[in-house]
Design brief:
Strand content: 5-15%
Number of strands: 22
Shape: elongated
Helix content: 25-40%
Structural class: alpha+beta
Distance between the termini: 132 Å
Strand order of the largest sheet: 7-6-14-13-12
Largest sheet: 5 strands, antiparallel
Length: 722
């Protein structure tokens, strides 16, 4: 009795051990440690491109499902009882034993699809013991996975010859498509090919491959999977030939995903049909730009609603070999030129620093050695802020940045997603607004797109705009309106171009003509273009308006057009701002002396802006010909719009209707500081004069404006007449 009890106990223990071993024998991930290709698809799952796995194989991640025809052909060829066996096929074992005995060698392994999944996952040498292990593990796999899941595991890891692993990679390499419209001949070929890819492949033993394909097609017809007519058509279909290259759409974007998500499958917002059109347009423009010694061009197109990139060209025309062709310019920091000006304008409006038509100084100026100049080397004296933006004037925008604050503006750019500002703000200085900072096309296009998106959807979708700094809808609207009437001083009449559709757009050119930018937005799309040379060389013909601008408009022509209310941003309503009285002449809040005014809907912080500093009450003679300072005769008071002398001198040259103040009557006491003002140097500037080659001190030129240009001036330095 004791012996029987011990035997029973030992058997129970062994059974328990076997059950536990069976239950825990599989790792959580069957193919743990396997390297996969990076796969990048468009918004509809279409393949944009892929990068090879670490082990040199084209092995895509687990496929979502097998093409139906391939699954049918595979089961018929490999494992006809797949859906009925528990991982091991008794009939196949008997049949294999008979075949092996009759041939005197192993000609059939009786492996089911499930057992082959085990073998591929373990990668062990093939012998009788390993075959037993595979059978044991196959039953466990059948208990963990569904039949369709086992088919997916098999289809994703089966070798197809060469360095091609898995059905998805095989279809792209051997068929040149994703298998969505797989023919019976193609399905049968792939089913046969994966069986013995080392001895039957596209380059050798093609007759054997063709024979096995056709035999499988006949079996499929016999089983009723295809008609006799379809069978005959399949026989006529040529055998697939040499491998196809994988798609190379948005190749720089695919490279970025490979760096960021190596070995993963990534779905993007790219629209493949649009991507192909964009690449055709950019390739065409690249050929034309090369005649100007401009080799590189990058494009980013974003959908405003989703803020997803729907077309991406890191560098155009990859068929033209040149230095820098592999540089992803769209994701590389480049000098911003004037492309940041709309952001400053919008921020200044939002904070009440300016109003839309606030006059900004446009006169020669020197900020501690920094003397900004306008593109056309002229000055307007004073110019409305929205006009300064539309004309991309440098001097007024530098004044605006000085008033708004460099550090404050740099922080705003970072909050808006610009990550390339990695130096302290004071190192950029006031030239930040003219290009001393570098930005990427990808990030600056996203900034513009987010401005449009916030205006359209910000109130209803605030959680997706957390931290975005430009949130005043009226400030945004005025910015869009100013950009819609862009007028550049480089002799290009863009109004004829943009009349086709409303586009808020801005161009920029960096110092030395190294970077040309153009970014445009509508309520639906944002298009960003960069033109230049990847290695940093400049070109005399490189400007934003002349090179990047035309490309941008061509790209907008590829996008769907909208009409009616959808064609432009709907004006903001009264509840979103404040109704404010503005001086028509200065654009400031109207003061007591301002008689010509207009009421405007402005951001709520507009009330923090300055009142008009240019209208003043002036005492003049009764005939209005002279100003009177000492009340020595009958006088009258008038209100006049009066600019500072330096501003006035330039302003009245292009505004003939501007009236200067009348002169003081002879003998009347005056304050000369009211009638003349230094243009250079400004008060507080420190000037250093280095010695010349001959040892003598250098020279400096002083300039001032006087309300009466005929006045004789006497110059003194430290009270010494010079």
């Amino acid at each position: 009795m004791k012996i029987k009890r011990q035997i029973r106990y030992s058997a129970d223990t062994a059974t328990a051990v076997m059950v536990l071993l069976w239950f825990f024998c599989l790792p959580e991930d069957l193919f743990e440690g396997t390297s996969y290709s990076t796969v990048v698809t468009d918004c509809n799952g279409e393949l944009l491109g892929a990068r090879i796995a670490d082990d040199g194989q084209w092995r895509f991640l687990l496929c979502d499902s097998l093409p139906e025809k391939f699954a049918i052909a595979l089961i018929e060829f490999e494992d006809r009882t797949f859906y009925s066996h528990p991982g091991i096929s008794a009939g196949a074992l008997v049949r294999a034993s008979i075949q092996n005995i009759s041939h005197g060698s192993v000609v059939s392994g009786a492996s089911t699809i499930t057992m082959q999944v085990v073998r591929m996952s373990r990668r062990k040498s093939r012998n009788v013991w390993q075959k037993m292990v595979e059978m044991f593990l196959a039953t466990r796999i059948e208990s963990r996975y569904t039949k369709d899941e086992i088919l997916r595991l098999y289809g994703s890891h089966a070798p197809f010859g060469g360095n091609v692993v898995g059905i998805n990679a095989a279809m792209w390499r051997y068929l040149g498509h994703d298998g969505s419209d797989l023919s019976w001949a193609e399905a049968a070929t792939l089913a046969v090919l994966q069986n013995v890819p080392s001895s039957i492949n596209l380059a050798k033993n093609r007759d054997t491959l063709l024979f096995k394909r056709n035999r499988l097609l006949h079996r499929l017809m016999d089983k009723g999977h295809l008609s006799e007519f379809d069978y005959k058509l399949a026989l006529e279909e040529p055998l697939i030939d040499k491998p196809f290259p994988l798609p190379q759409q948005a190749s720089h974007l695919v490279e970025w995903y490979d760096r960021m998500y190596h070995g993963k499958k990534s779905s993007t917002g790219i629209k493949l049909s649009l991507q192909r059109q964009v690449e055709d347009v950019t390739d065409k423009w690249s050929k034309e730009l090369r005649t100007l010694s401009i080799n590189d061009l990058a494009v980013v197109i974003m959908d405003v609603r989703s803020r997803e990139i729907i077309a991406y060209c890191g560098n155009a025309d990859m068929n033209y070999h040149r230095q820098g062709m592999f540089v992803d310019i769209a994701n590389s920091p480049r000098s911003s030129g004037s492309i940041l000006k709309p952001l400053l304008y919008c921020a200044a409006l939002q904070e009440g620093t300016i109003l839309p038509q606030t006059l900004l100084p446009d006169v020669p100026v020197n900020f501690g050695g920094f003397s900004p100049k306008n593109f056309d080397m002229t000055f307007s004296g004073a110019v409305a802020a929205d006009e300064a933006l539309a004309r991309s004037l440098n001097v007024p925008n530098v004044h605006l940045l000085k008033e708004y604050g460099v550090m404050r503006f740099a922080e705003l750019l970072k909050q808006g997603g610009i990550t390339s500002l990695n130096r302290p703000a004071d190192q950029y200085g006031l030239s930040l607004i003219l290009g001393s900072a570098e930005v990427t096309l990808r990030e600056i296009t996203a900034f513009y797109a987010t401005m449009a998106a916030y205006y359209q959807y910000g109130n209803a979708d605030t959680e997706h705009f957390t931290g975005f700094p430009l949130t005043d809808k009226i400030a945004l609207y005025h910015t869009f309106e100013a950009l819609k009437r862009v007028n550049r001083p480089d002799q290009l009449d863009w109004r004829r171009v943009v009349s086709v559709q409303n586009i808020a757009w801005k161009t920029g050119t960096s110092y030395g003509s190294r970077d040309a930018w153009a970014i445009g937005i509508t309520p639906h799309y944002a298009v960003g273009v960069w033109v230049g040379n990847a290695e940093g060389g400049g070109s005399p013909g490189l400007t934003g308006a002349r090179t990047a601008g035309p490309v941008m408009f061509d790209l907008f022509n590829l996008l769907p057009k909208h009409s009616g209310e959808e064609a432009w941003f709907i004006p903001p309503n009264d509840a979103e701002g404040e109704s404010v009285v503005i001086c028509r002449h200065s654009g400031h809040l109207a003061g007591h002396e301002c008689t010509d005014t207009v009421r405007m809907l402005l951001p709520r912080k507009a009330k923090l802006s300055n009142s008009c500093p240019y209208h003043q009450s002036v005492i003049v003679s009764l005939d209005g010909k002279y100003r009177i300072a000492d009340r020595s005769e009958p006088v009258k008071k008038i209100n006049r719009f009066v600019l500072l002398p330096a501003m006035e001198w330039y302003y009245k040259q292009i505004h003939p209707g501007y009236e200067s103040l009348p002169p003081f009557k002879s003998g009347s006491m005056t304050d000369e500081t009211d009638v003349m003002r230094f243009i250079y140097p400004d008060n507080g500037i420190v000037i250093s004069l280095p010695h010349q080659m001959n040892g003598e001190p250098g020279e400096v030129t002083f300039s001032l404006a006087h309300s009466n240009p005929a006045t004789e001036l006497f110059w003194h330095l430290d009270r010494e007449y010079i």
